[in-house]
Amino acid sequence: MTIQSVEWKNDAIVILDQQQLPNEIIYEHLTTIEHVWESITYLKVRGAPAIGIVAAFGLALWARSKQSNHLELFLDEFEKQRDYLASSRPTAVNLFWAIDRIVKKVKRAQSVAEAKDLAVAEALAIQKEDVQTCRRIGENGLSLLKDGNTVMTICNAGAIATAKYGTALAPFYLAKEKGLTLKAFACETRPVLQGSRLTAWELQQLGVDVTLITDSMAAHTLKTKEINAVIVGADRIAANGDTANKIGTYGLALLAKAHDIPFYVAAPFSTIDLNTLTGDDIPIEERAAEEITHLQGKAIAPAATKVFNPAFDVTPSELITGIITEYGVVRGDYQTELTRLYSNEIET
Ligand code: MRU
């Protein structure tokens, strides 16, 4: 079964509502840019590349619906819509990368009609490229593993967090195609359970042997089970390789180090932000207290409990064995290697 998180259909956006998983597979039509903003903010569409894709389509949707013949006014308003979508979530840089790419393209238009077409075409191109990008990440990731290996992961960096294949989960898709077996341990990923609700579900759909653990079981599991690698996704990778990903990732990296297990980050180049120099410069989203104090609408903490709810943490680059990208596995001096790859592969 191929599940697509975001689709552009008859000038509208159709999303898989990831908040309903694993209990229901519900597709929702987003018909306004406000719907798109809400779908990102309330995690119906989540995962760095998927957020970028739906935001890109959000701008296309707005452009298509706008009645105007005045190019300059249209472009002014287009940029305001870009800023509006940019306010939906702060950490995943793919969001800004995708909407800025659309704005840049649309600014080349000679007429409003052309601007509308360019917005749609560019959004479709971003989505299409992500399929190939993730496939290459899967191939590069798989080259680090052996048939029969077991991988631990956190959050969901799977097909539903991208256009297809995922990043951290992409090696599982490629392994299936090649008739190889990989097993997974999925951390449940408190507070909103992307690991149990999404990764366990997605890997089961793929026919992968996946074992669910709570986040607090990671140390014991790394010590007592044969885990060959930890592979996680990323929301933003700074120029020096420091990586923001779902809260709990940093702890997992420390544990992997303590148990001498390789710790890989899998991400497309659109997640690498050379303008952000170190992890300290990455904005970390803090989300509503209810995500921690309530479970399925029911209180699990005393009323008015003080809460700290950062959605992401930053893993320092020295804990990262390698960054699996579409251009290969980056290791060692990330600052130099990422800059070199960027100028060789992206700027040429
Ligand atoms: O809050 P989320 O669910 O959007 O967080 C997602 C992650 O942390 C993923 O690991 C990351 O975006 C990579 S998705 C390929």
From TrEMBL:
Gene Ontology terms, MF aspect: S-methyl-5-thioribose-1-phosphate isomerase activity
SUPFAM superfamilies associated with the record: NagB/RpiA/CoA transferase-like (SSF100950)
Catalytic activity: 5-(methylsulfanyl)-alpha-D-ribose 1-phosphate = 5-(methylsulfanyl)-D-ribulose 1-phosphate
Site positions per UniProt: Transition state stabilizer: 155
Active site residues per record: 235 (proton donor)
Function: Catalyzes the interconversion of methylthioribose-1-phosphate (MTR-1-P) into methylthioribulose-1-phosphate (MTRu-1-P).
GO biological process, any: L-methionine salvage from methylthioadenosine
Organism lineage string: Bacteria, Bacillati, Bacillota, Bacilli, Bacillales
Subunit text: Homodimer.
Family annotation (Pfam families): IF-2B
Pathway assignment: Amino-acid biosynthesis; L-methionine biosynthesis via salvage pathway; L-methionine from S-methyl-5-thio-alpha-D-ribose 1-phosphate: step 1/6
EC identifiers of the protein: 5.3.1.23
Binding site for substrate: 46-48, 89, 194, 245-246
Keywords: Amino-acid biosynthesis, Isomerase, Methionine biosynthesis
Protein name listed in UniProt: Methylthioribose-1-phosphate isomerase
Family the UniProt entry places it in: Belongs to the EIF-2B alpha/beta/delta subunits family. MtnA subfamily.
